[in-house]
């Protein structure tokens, strides 16, 4: 599974701060965030070279989107479209609310189950295809103020051992302070290989004998509407974050 940490502070200079670890098979080829799509020149995102989509991206209008598999749905399936396409579809919109409205009409039968996080500096949502109950349209949940964690289950779902262990740790950690040039306690937690229970995949940062594990990590902060003088911040670790430093992402 992947993990996204979400800190929403609507009245702050930086109202949205995100930490994210991507978990994937080590042999699945990818490229770091860049302008990889000529038909989408306003989009910066990592490129999944296998399917052509992405796991996380940001457009020039300030919309960020990230896709996570639901439990037990790793990898492609015959007859299903790539879930990485959905991030690009979300980034076709200049506003998170507009993106969610458009994707709420999606026919989920074309995709394996997913959690799609979509946000800007005003709003944040999770678009969910749980793959149950015969629903042909996704469900949408608004992400409220404060700190939240999204993995392969529902938002803040402590049935996931990773959420149960790490959500309290993130809530008690020093928060990122972009004005001071620091990401607080988040890099250490995103790099943590500590796990609780029977499965090493319960760690934030792991690698299983099968080759499945944490393949990259990201930190992002979006400035308030009232601060057009500030640009979004995005730092990316091009590998497991305990081995690879976070480097600024250059758009363009």
Any overview of this molecule?
The protein has one domain: Penicillin V Acylase, Chain A (4-Layer Sandwich), CATH 3.60.60.10. The protein is α+β, with helices and mostly antiparallel strands. Strands 3-4-5-6-7-8-9 form a seven-stranded antiparallel β-sheet, with helices on one face. A six-stranded antiparallel β-sheet has the order 10-1-2-11-12-13. Helix content is about 15%, strand content about 30%.
Question: TL;DR?
Answer:
The chain is α+β, with helices and mostly antiparallel strands and 252 residues long. The chain has a single domain (3-248), classed as Penicillin V Acylase, Chain A.
Termini separation (Å)?
30 Å
The strand count comes to 13
Let me know the CATH homologous superfamily: Penicillin V Acylase, Chain A
Rg on CA atoms, Å: 17 Å
CATH top level label: Alpha Beta
Q: What is the count of DSSP helices, taking H or I runs of 4+ residues?
A: 4
Proportion of residues in β-strands: 25-35%
As a percent range, the share of helical residues equals: 10-25%
Write the layout of secondary structure elements.
Layout: E1 3-8, E2 16-25, E3 30-34, E4 43-48, E5 56-59, E6 64-69, H1 84-90, H2 96-103, E7 114-119, E8 124-129, E9 139-142, E10 146-150, H3 161-172, H4 186-190, E11 212-222, E12 233-237, E13 247-248
Antiparallel strand pairs: 1-2, 1-10, 2-11, 3-4, 4-5, 5-6, 6-7, 7-8, 8-9, 11-12, 12-13
């Amino acid at each position: 599974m992947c993990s996204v940490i979400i800190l929403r502070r609507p009245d702050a200079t930086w109202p949205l701060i995100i930490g994210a670890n991507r978990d994937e098979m080590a042999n699945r080829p990818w490229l770091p965030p860049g302008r990889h799509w000529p038909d989408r020149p306003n989009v910066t995102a990592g490129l999944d070279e296998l399917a052509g989509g992405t796991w996380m991206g940001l457009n020039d209008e300030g919309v960020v989107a990230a896709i996570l598999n639901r439990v037990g749905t790793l990898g492609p399936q015959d007859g299903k479209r790539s879930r990485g396409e959905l991030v690009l579809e979300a980034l076709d919109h200049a506003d998170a609310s507009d993106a969610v409205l458009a994707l709420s009409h999606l026919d989920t039968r074309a995709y394996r189950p997913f959690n799609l996080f979509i946000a800007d500096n005003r709003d944040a949502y999770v678009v969910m295809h749980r793959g149950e109950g015969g629903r042909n349209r996704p469900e949408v949940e608004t992400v409220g103020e404060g700190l939240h964690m999204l993995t392969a289950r529902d938002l803040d779902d402590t049935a996931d051992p990773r959420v149960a262990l790490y959500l309290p740790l993130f809530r008690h950690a020093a928060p990122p302070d972009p004005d001071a040039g620091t990401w607080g306690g988040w890099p250490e937690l995103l790099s943590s290989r500590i796990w609780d229970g029977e499965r090493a995949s319960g760690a934030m940062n792991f690698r299983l004998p099968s080759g499945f594990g944490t393949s990259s990590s990201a930190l992002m902060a979006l400035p308030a509407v009232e601060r057009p003088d500030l640009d979004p911040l995005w730092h990316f670790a091009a590998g497991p974050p305990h081995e690879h430093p976070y480097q600024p992402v250059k758009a363009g």
